[in-house]
């Protein structure tokens, strides 16, 4: 395949697509995007931008027809259309059957079990009322099989009294894990099967919204834990035989055990800091994987922290930024705005990465940045 | 000034403009470009792209009218139009009078002399024949006052016999300097006068074409030489009172003296490695300067080398790349292609930056890259 003659299509044109475009520009690659939102972050910067549903068979099929290579920046896409495109000779990475597996948390959990991948105990349930049959399993999280994303599709069921809060639809009950840290490993595999894992990062989540609030790279864990987490991520991508970037979110338990929480077959919020903090960004790494180039060096250049910029509570409308200049006055801070025209509470509007060779100073800077930058309307 | 409401226009839409766009995307800034070449690197990725002469008063004036801020990526532009725009309230950085000064090597040299900035001895001449009056000054370089760029406009006059090779037009004779290294310092100054210099880099030029062939960052010089070079660059930008990035090329002589060779009031080939090798890239730094943000951290993250990708001799036509995948298989290598559709011998078609914590390995990698990557047709 001649890289510079390859027509690349991407399902989704949001912030992840935007950062893929930013990574593709220095290579003079053209990325064509499909997104339902005519004002999505990529709409002005993609080589071409098609407005349409990612879940509709005809839309996805017609978009993919005539492309050489299709990839995704969101996993809720029509995999039947992708399978047909693949059968007709279009390369689709990650492969459609892997996207389908990951779209459904029930299938994901079964995959872990079948392949001896450590994960929290779970019970499949068909509807919320089934929880009553498993009261001995509580406290637990109820997770819907499909459509969960950025904290949606998850309910915390502590006792029988919480069953009224349970969500409708097939899903699973997952045992509540007592963890000390939430970790993530970004791992890549190219077409030829070369695999490379990034150093482990650790995440701090928003206490209510289940969104990453801070991320620190590298994680402050033992060398043994680091190796265990990386080997686990490598095992998953190898078992899947997947091409592209895979994000593996994990729990580190009080006993030093590592359990897989969720995986995402795409560039991921827990890899944004690789743009500034690592030799190769996850975005370039994904392009390397799908174009069958050798994986780039994943090393950390300098410790980094990533802070998501979320829409402020109480604001809904045309976007305004506060604290832009103040954040950029902090040494080592880089701002990424996603170019969304409208803000709403907790919408992901951008992120900041800050680097510092001193980890204590890094944490202080991250907190200061969080206080300084606001998206209002 | 509200940064996100600022309409920014750039004179020139070549590779430097392209890398400015790449730096502006994460900030969600829109850059509007003017360039005479309808196929220039920025033509598809600028917020708007106007085709027209940079030297024509009306074209530049009409382009600048309605913008809030104008900057340049090439210095051969109509400064009269820029002065009129400035008088009408458009911010122009670098300031028109500085662009005019730097457009003419004769004025540049006089500026050094008047401000006690060390530079090679010189004599102003009005035409080639004047050289005969200064035979005692040879060996020397004849430099035309205007229109010199990328090695053009310079003739080496060793003895009286070379006068036939001299160029027509007013210029200067510059004493040949016995130097051990060619250095460059990128320095920035924002609107408020905050100045920051990057660590010194050293350049190796193509033996015939006077184009940078390799660049190494940081330069292998003493701490005293490093400080002297940085202070000199800071003195120049402060004396000029310029806003924006200034590249200061220097000679390190056998006696440890530092002489200023040339300055360029814009992002520069000798700062490309800052994208991967330093905390803040020169491109983001220029945006910081003209938007009056605090200068970013200029520190080296990791030693880097930069290799220009020049069109191969013997090829003239639609571009093809050789060695793309092979270069990307070298750890720490990043390719930047400028997206020019047509190659010709020695045309700047792209560059590669490679990083390595070990300086010897870095040099070996740079040589290997130089051999691997070719632009043919």
Structural notes for this entry:
Two copies of one chain form a homodimer. The first copy, chain A, is α+β, with helices and mostly antiparallel strands. Chain A has ten helices and 22 strands. In chain A, helix 2 runs parallel beside helix 3. The first copy, chain A, starts with 7 loop residues before the first strand and ends with a strand. The model of chain A has no long low-confidence stretch (mean pLDDT 95). Chains A and B meet through helix 1, helix 9 and strand 19 of A and helix 1, helix 9 and strand 19 of B.
List the helices and strands and how they pair.
The structure is a homodimer of 377-residue chains.
Chain A: E1 8-11, H1 15-24, E2 31-35, E3 48-51, H2 57-64, E4 69-72, H3 79-87, E5 91-92, H4 96-103, H5 105-114, E6 122-125, E7 140-144, E8 154-157, E9 171-175, E10 179-189, E11 195-197, E12 201-205, E13 212-217, H6 223-240, E14 244-253, E15 258-264, H7 274-277, H8 282-290, E16 304-310, E17 317-318, E18 320-322, H9 324-328, E19 333-337, E20 342-343, E21 348-355, H10 359-372, E22 374-376
Parallel strand pairs in A: 1-2, 1-4, 2-3, 4-5
Antiparallel strand pairs in A: 6-9, 7-8, 7-9, 10-11, 10-12, 10-14, 12-13, 13-16, 14-15, 16-21, 17-20, 18-22, 19-21
Helix pairs in contact in A: 1-8, 2-3, 3-4
């Amino acid at each position: 395949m001649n890289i510079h003659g390859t027509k690349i299509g991407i399902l989704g044109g949001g912030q992840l697509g935007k950062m893929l475009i930013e990574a593709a520009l220095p290579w003079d690659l053209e990325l064509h995007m499909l997104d339902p939102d005519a004002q999505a972050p990529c709409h002005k910067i993609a080589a071409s931008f098609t407005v349409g549903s990612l879940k509709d068979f005809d839309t996805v099929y017609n978009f993919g027809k005539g492309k050489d290579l299709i990839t995704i920046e969101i996993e809720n896409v029509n995999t039947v259309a992708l399978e047909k495109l693949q059968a007709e000779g279009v390369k689709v990475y990650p492969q459609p059957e892997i996207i389908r597996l990951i779209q459904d948390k029930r299938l994901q959990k079964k995959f872990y079990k079948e392949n001896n991948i450590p994960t929290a105990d779970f019970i499949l349930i068909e509807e919320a009322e089934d929880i009553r049959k498993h009261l001995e399993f509580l406290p637990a999280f109820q997770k819907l099989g499909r459509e969960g994303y950025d904290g949606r599709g998850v309910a915390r069921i502590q006792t029988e009294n919480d069953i009224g809060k349970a969500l409708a639809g097939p899903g699973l009950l997952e045992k509540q894990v007592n963890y000390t840290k939430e970790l993530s490993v970004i791992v890549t595999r190219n077409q030829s099967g070369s695999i490379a894992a990034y150093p482990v990062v650790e995440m701090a989540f928003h206490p209510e919204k289940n969104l990453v609030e801070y991320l620190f790279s590298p994680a402050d864990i033992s060398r043994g834990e680091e190796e265990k987490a990386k080997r686990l991520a490598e095992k998953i991508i190898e078992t899947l035989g997947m091409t592209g970037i895979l994000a593996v979110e994990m729990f580190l338990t009080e006993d030093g055990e590592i359990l897989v929480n969720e995986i995402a077959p795409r560039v991921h919020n827990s890899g944004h800091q690789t743009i500034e903090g690592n030799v190769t960004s996850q975005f370039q790494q994904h392009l390397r994987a799908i174009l069958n180039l050798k994986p780039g060096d994943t090393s950390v250049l300098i410790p980094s922290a990533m802070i998501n910029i979320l829409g402020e509570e109480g604001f809904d409308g045309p976007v305004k930024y506060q604290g832009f200049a103040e954040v950029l006055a902090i040494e080592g801070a880089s701002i990424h705005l996603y170019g969304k025209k409208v803000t709403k509470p907790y919408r992901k509007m951008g992120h900041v990465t800050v680097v510092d060779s001193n980890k204590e100073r890094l944490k202080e800077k991250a907190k200061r940045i969080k206080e300084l930058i606001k998206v209002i309307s």
